[in-house]
Write a structure and sequence with these properties.
The protein is an alpha+beta fold and 210 residues long. It is built from four helices and five strands; from the N terminus they run ββββααβαα.
Length: 210
């Protein structure tokens, strides 16, 4: 692998970040930087035909915006041992034994205020304390709520197309020469968990004799 030039200068937002914690190497746990200035090492063949390692934008899809990055230890950033990295990811440069920073939030083009930084970092810290089991439970609850909402919406659409008596079925014997009938009593809907509404076509009722 050919020698690399020094990394391009990283453009930081004009806010001190030391108040939000330090990593084991004494560096800021969080940093707010200009996305186009954030670079990474990529190895391959370049437009001029050369084959080498060089610095390229790490977040080209973000565009010209400020981003918030959080430092990750090597076991989370690399996700493998040094031997596995050198065997599988050597094209991405040397093993990141000091960890590295990863994007967690994208701001507008203007530099974020200190208040906005505090809000985003507080949310990130809270999220990092949620366990996998709690996250699965939340997602399951969210899915059930969405399904219940869809079911209720369907029920509302069905009711809007029923006669004026709603979902109540009409039962009765009509005698000849008259149009009088006694409708059946509507049974109460059975209780359903999680406020899910059940629509029935009506139960059997007592019929009156004309």
């Amino acid at each position: 692998m050919s020698a690399l030039t020094s990394a391009p200068e990283l453009v930081h937002a004009p806010w001190p970040m030391s108040a939000y914690g330090k990593n084991p190497f004494g560096e800021n746990m969080y940093r707010c930087v200009w996305a186009p200035s954030r670079r990474r090492i990529v190895y391959g063949q370049w437009p001029d035909g050369s084959v080498k390692s060089d610095w390229t934008p790490k977040y080209p899809a973000v565009g010209e915006r400020f981003i918030l990055e959080k430092w990750l230890p090597v076991e989370k950033f690399a996700g493998c041992t040094r031997e596995a990295w050198e065997r599988q990811n050597s094209l991405l440069g040397p093993y990141p034994d000091r960890g590295d920073y990863e994007i967690i939030f994208t701001f507008d083009a203007e530099a974020p205020t200190d208040g906005a930084l505090r809000t985003v970092i507080a949310a990130a810290e809270f999220g990092s304390k949620i366990t996998m089991a709690e996250n699965r439970s939340f997602l399951k609850q969210q899915y059930e709520d969405e399904e219940a909402a869809k079911y209720n919406e369907l029920c509302d659409r069905i009711r809007s197309r029923l006669p004026f008596m709603g979902s109540q079925a009409i039962s009765g014997r009509v005698s000849r020469g008259t149009k009088n009938f006694k409708p059946m009593r509507r049974r109460p809907l059975p209780a359903r968990p999680r406020n899910v509404v059940q629509v029935t076509a009506g139960g059997k009722g007592k019929r009156s004799v004309a």
